[in-house]
Amino acid sequence: MWKFAEVDKGKVVPNTNSATHTVCDAFVSVVRQTPPGRMTVLAAVAESKSLMGKPRERVLRAVRFSKEDAAATAAFAAGQVATLYERTSPDDDRLWQAISAARNGELTALQALDPESLTPSKPRQANDAAAYAAESARAAVLAAMAPDAGIALQATGYAIAYAIQAADKVDAEPDVTSAIEKWLLTRQGNLETVRT
Fold this sequence. Notes:
Layout: E1 2-8, E2 11-13, H1 23-30, E3 41-49, E4 55-64, H2 67-79, H3 82-88, H4 94-104, H5 107-112, H6 129-145, H7 149-169, H8 173-187, E5 192-193
Antiparallel strand pairs: 1-2, 1-3, 3-4, 4-5
Helix pairs in contact: 1-7, 2-4, 2-6, 2-7, 3-6, 4-6, 6-7, 7-8
């Protein structure tokens, strides 16, 4: 089970957020943080019982996401569905430019991009795969431009959610979700470990 948590005095602080079965779902739950930006630590948790028999969560492992880690994750998610955008706008490379700038942290390139301009060239319906792919890339840009890791993680949650929605429109949701989940599980081995 997975959840995002805060750190106080170098230690993971328990919270009442529900743990999720996948890391992707934990990212999506970050979108609902109020106020935004406090939870930047991904924790693997297990349910156990206290000495009094009350249920509680035990943190097995925790890693901190930096702003750069969040932006890289958002760019990876957006990249998984970028071809859905290309199908409707084959001569428009703005989506790949945005993903590349977010992935590489190219501040000048990011500042030159208008996140609002990332829309398919043909008129789209709100539930179209290309529109969701564009929203995923837009969220990746916003993650890379965020002022801190917490805000970047919220944008990353949106990038993942939009990528999964885009894939769902073309019956590829299980493959895209699996690719993002696998990438996240592999990536966390490179992140800063937090004392539990």
